[in-house]
Amino acid sequence: MRKILATSLVLASVSFTASAEECGKVTIADMNWNSATLIANIDRFILDHGYGCDAELVPGDTMPTGASMIEKGQPDVAPEFWSNSMKAALDKGVDEGRIRYAGSSLSEGGEEGFWVPEYMVKKDPTLATIEGVKANAKLFEHPEDPDKSAFMGCPAGWNCQISAGNLFNALELDKAGFDLIDPGSGAGLSGSIAKAYEREEAWFGYYWAPTAVLGKYKMVKVDFGSGIDEKQFKDCTTNEDCLDPKVTMYPPSPVDTVVTETFAKRAPAAMEYLSTRAFTNAKMNALLAWMEDNQADGELAAEEFLNENSDIWMKWVSPETADKVKKALAAL
User: Fold this and answer.
1) Phi and psi torsions of 327, nearest 5°
2) Domain limits at 128?
3) Is 131 found in the same domain as 37?
4) Cβ-defined contacts of 63-68 (< 8 Å, 24+)
């Protein structure tokens, strides 16, 4: 009996060692914004403790990380990659067998739109539509000109300034009395939402998700009644030289997990996890709001997520892997 037990323990040890060696050292890009650093830390913990990997975070940013993965095969994993930013290069890297799209980090993609506070829509459901907003333009008081209404645009110099401006023109918001206001900065834009919410005042403008702001303040995306015209959006809406913009809703921005082909081939179990792991925008908004309220870094936020959301992450892994992760969490 002892011999059988000893043999079983040896086999189990060999199996675990093989699994660890199979995964090996894994470098994970820790991008310099909150949602990306949160996902990177979650991945590090689960790969370390659930799959026996030797996972390490390395500094990252979109362009240099993408180029390094394609040209040098490092880092192994970029957990949150807004792939439209260098799609041609990424697709070429896939075609050449250098990298692979593992799955979507954000199941609904990045989200942009024109928004109004939820409390306004509860009072008047028509404000969830652009026609309702236009008909009630006087509600949105201009901070400097009482004869005009305020639309808060995207800060100057940001890419979204072009799309927001073109859609402002396509929707003919100026004819409804709106003035396109430059908030001056990202902080100015988010601050204008916070100020309106504290006073339950009217607000109408551009914003995006996932963000802490949309986690803290319940906003409703205004329906333009147009659906999404991806060709129009790509060819004209996002083009500074667009002369005749047409109305279209913002298409979702693909947000992917990108891995090197060498990692994908040597660690199929870890790849299965990365291809399954995804967040809804609503959940990520809430997590980002928690990070901001608690001044938490990615590591602390990852522990909070794993401790408080087992109903979510346990669906990404096998029961055996989940047990390993839970034991590691209990030991913290």
Assistant:
1) -65, -40
2) 111-236
3) no
4) 65/29, 65/31, 66/90, 66/93, 66/258
* 16 in a structural domain: no
Q: Name the strands in the sheet holding 255-260, side by side, starting at the edge strand that comes first in the sequence.
A: 54-60, 25-31, 77-82, 255-260, 99-104
Spatial CA neighbour of 116 closest among 222, 3, 241, 234: 222
Instruction: List the one residue out of 256, 206, 202, 253 whose CA is nearest residue 230.
Output: 253
d(CA 150, CA 116): 12
pLDDT digits (tens, 9 = 90+) for 118-137: 999 999 999 999 999 999 99
Domain boundary among 175, 201, 236: 236
Q: What span, in angstroms and rounded, lies between the C-alpha atoms of 190 and 96?
A: 42
pLDDT tens per residue, range 190-213: 999 999 999 999 999 999 999 999
Rounded CA separation 270/33 (Å) = 24
Which residue type does 307 have?
A: N
Residue given tokens 């994908």 in the structure block: 264
Find, among 76, 99, 65, the residue nearest to 28 by Cα.
76
* DSSP one-letter string for 194-210: HHHHHHT----EEEEES
Name, in order, each residue with C-beta under 8 angstroms of 20's C-beta and a sequence gap of 6 or more: 52, 53, 54
Cβ–Cβ < 8 Å for 141, 149: yes
The pLDDT tens digits of the residues spanning 203-261 come to 999 999 999 999 999 999 999 999 999 999 999 999 999 999 999 999 999 999 999 99
Q: Is residue 292 part of a domain?
A: yes
